[in-house]
Specification:
- The chain has seven helices and no strands.
- It has 127 residues and is mainly α.
- It folds into two domains: 50 residues, no CATH class; 74 residues, AhpD-like.
């Protein structure tokens, strides 16, 4: 497990950035430490650490799945992560267009709204 935890933390930092991970680690408590370990080892140390597909492709898959399952809260975080994974705005809109066709226009529409807002913030044009 230590290898998955170490590799998971390294991939998490590479994708989300040190500042995000540092904030998450500082906010960790006794209550959620087991959960944080689980996602670091499984999501980041197993799935994201796999070299089966690129980080760019994982970004697009993750964003599409978050939108399709209406788990909108993490979309801004994963939009910000595209700066580190190489997924472009064009990649993201293509992924959300797939969401519109296969999972519903309202889900894609809301994801696009969140993406536009996050991109504007990233570019210093936030409202």
């Amino acid at each position: 497990m230590q290898d998955r935890k170490s590799s998971g933390m390294a991939v998490r930092r590479k994708v989300l950035g040190d500042a995000h991970v540092d904030r998450a680690e500082a906010a960790k408590s006794d209550f959620d430490t087991p959960f944080q370990s689980l996602i670091t080892e499984s999501a980041w140390g197993t799935v994201w650490a796999s070299d089966g597909i690129s980080l760019r492709d994982r970004s697009m898959l993750t964003l599409a799945l978050l939108a399709a399952t209406k788990n909108f809260e993490e979309i801004p975080m994963h939009i910000r992560a595209t700066a580190n994974t190489g997924a472009t705005k064009q990649d993201v809109i293509e992924a959300f267009q797939h969401v519109a066709i296969y999972a519903g226009v309202p889900a894609a529409n809301h994801a696009i709204k969140l993406a536009k807002k996050t991109y504007a913030e990233m570019e210093g044009n936030g409202q």
